Amino acid sequence: MNLVCSNCIQSFPADRMHVLPGWVEAPDEPGHFVITFRCHACYPAAIDDTGRRVAAWDDATAAGMGRFIDLWDIRDFLPELADSNDREAATGLVRIVRASDGKALLPRVVPDPGAVEEAGFLERLSIVATRMPSWKVLLLCLGVVLTGVYCCTALERL
Known about the structure:
Blueprint: E1 2-4, E2 11-13, E3 18-24, E4 32-38, H1 43-56, H2 59-71, H3 74-77, H4 86-99, H5 106-109, H6 113-118, H7 121-129, H8 134-157
Antiparallel strand pairs: 1-2, 3-4
Helix pairs in contact: 1-4, 2-4
């Protein structure tokens, strides 16, 4: 399975990628942390940037990291962070990601290749949906429903 580096947009095998929280700012939206995939060349700058942001710990970082930790169930996935507050969890997460060379989160965000192939349609949708903002999930579901309605209508005309 190949993954695409979030920075240089090149494809690499999953075992050569690093996974970490990265800060994203979009127009008209507050900044937030998302899962990013980085190749060997892009990883050092990315983890340093995340580490600096967490060390500075302002209100935006607190809100973004709190949401990230909850969204990805980081405290359940990394039990050593279970009893920590958001700031301690964020600092611990950066430490764990650095110590694992960006591999600690890989099993959390990239399912085993066999799991995707063996998964049914709804499971595949849930694998994709966990990585999408809720409004995109809603549009995806609406598209699936409308496609179904269109197909049913077309079949009735035959």
